[in-house]
Amino acid sequence: MPDLSKRQRQYLDAMGIEVWVPRDAAPEPVAEPLAGPPPAPAGGEAAAPPPAAEADPATLVATGGPDADSPIHRLDWTALAARVASCTRCELHRSRTHTVFGVGNPDADWMIIGEAPGAEEDRQGEPFVGRAGQLLTNMLRAVGLQRDDVYIANILKCRPPGNRDPEVEEMEACTPYLNRQIQLVNPRLILAVGRFAAHYLLNSKASLASLRGQVHQYAATGTPVVVSYHPAYLLRSPAQKGKAWADLKLARQVVAGSASNTET
Ligand code: URA
């Protein structure tokens, strides 16, 4: 396990981020290294699955490219990214700086699904790059995963102004994109972080506390779903991190094939 560089430690301290270490793998409370340097500026860090560099997605659709009329559930990665980049299906397109499509390994075993972009995600066009994202990255490292081993997306691809809660019409407008992402990644597990992701994926209004600790299924694809706390909540309530660690271990068991549907 490589050592944290001085710069990385300073960075963690400055962010007030606790370092996550798998307890059963590391009895001593040693520091877990960061995945890398602080988040790269716009467009950096983990490679987004759609090869955005090959073509400007917005232009593809705006110019009536070959997929301009295809239904969302038939789009490939490039066309899907293009469709999202030029989306006007709800009012959130008026206030966004960037759409936030998703990032990571398009063949990932783990798919992490959050709620909606925040200010930093809106600025950079990448999910979970703010403080909550730093914690998520450290949580993933605690189960031996780098950020670009997994695929990370949100229910909403545009930031709700002032980080207000997503509205039903916004989620309805946006979820065909997420559904297509889930189909394309075809993960072994979805980790739903936070109430909105859990409620959407499980079509449930139950409390997060009651949804945790079980293996559910996303009905549309049959994908196993484990629910956990949103990292933003964990930043506010660090005492709950132990429960989030238990959720990650359950998720790891599902991916390893040693836990299956436990829905009651
Ligand atoms: N919160 C989320 O749910 N998603 C992000 O991308 C950032 C913060």
Question: What does the secondary structure layout of this molecule look like, with pairings?
Answer:
Layout: H1 6-15, H2 57-62, H3 77-85, E1 103-104, E2 110-114, H4 119-124, H5 131-142, E3 151-154, H6 168-185, E4 189-193, H7 195-202, H8 208-211, E5 216-218, E6 223-228, H9 231-236, H10 241-256
Parallel strand pairs: 2-3, 2-4, 4-6
Antiparallel strand pairs: 1-3, 5-6
Summarize the structure.
The protein has helices at residues 6-15, 57-62, 77-85, 119-124, 131-142, 168-185, 195-202, 208-211, 231-236, 241-256, and strands at residues 103-104, 110-114, 151-154, 189-193, 216-218, 223-228. It is 36% helix and 9% strand.
Q: Which strands sit side by side, in order, in the main sheet?
A: 1-3-2-4-6-5
User: In total, how many beta strands?
Assistant: 6
- Uncertain regions: pLDDT < 50 for 5+ in a row? 1-17, 21-63
What small-molecule ligands were found? uracil
Q: Strand count, sense and closure of the main sheet?
A: 6 strands, mixed
Distance between the termini: 39 Å
- What is the average per-residue confidence, as pLDDT, rounded to a whole number? 82
- What is the H/E order? HHHEEHHEHEHHEEHH
Task: Give the strand content.
Answer: 5-15%
Q: Judging from the principal axes of the Cα atoms, what is the shape? A: globular
Q: What integer value in Å does the Rg equal?
A: 18 Å
Helical amount? 25-40%
Count of alpha and pi helical runs: 10
Q: Could you say which structural class the secondary elements and strand pairing correspond to?
A: alpha/beta
